């Protein structure tokens, strides 16, 4: 795997980009406007791979 020296636990830049990518794809495929509801649906439907997910998680 890759090591990302500039990314620390708790940072969300990669996961934010991941969700935005999927929300835009969903909007393009469905013809729906890109909005907060579609972004929330993308977060539910397309979880990021662990290799880019540095968000803090509650146990």
Provide structural commentary.
Helices cover 47% and strands 0% of the residues. It is mainly alpha-helical and 59 residues long. It has one domain. α1 crosses α2. It is elongated, with a radius of gyration of 13 Å. The chain starts with 12 loop residues before the first helix and ends in a 14-residue tail after the last helix. The mean pLDDT is 88.
Integer count of domains: 1
| Shape category | elongated
Beta strand %: under 5%
Number of contiguous helices: 2
Calculate the terminal CA-CA distance, rounded to whole Å: 25 Å
Tell me how many strands there are. 0
Please identify the structural class as seen in this structure.
mainly alpha
Radius of gyration: 13 Å
Low-confidence stretches: none
Order of helices and strands: HH
What composes the largest sheet?
none
**Percentage of residues in helical conformation:** 40-55%
Rounded mean pLDDT is 88
Summarize the structure.
The protein has two helices and no strands. With 59 residues, it is mostly helical. It has one domain (1-59).
Write the layout of secondary structure elements.
Elements: H1 13-30, H2 36-45
List keywords for this structure.
mainly alpha, 59 residues
């Amino acid at each position: 795997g890759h090591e990302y020296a500039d990314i620390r636990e708790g940072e969300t830049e990669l996961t934010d980009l991941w969700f935005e990518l999927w929300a835009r794809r969903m909007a393009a495929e469905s013809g729906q406007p890109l909005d907060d509801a579609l972004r929330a649906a993308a977060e539910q439907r397309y979880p990021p791979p662990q290799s880019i997910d540095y968000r803090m998680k509650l146990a």
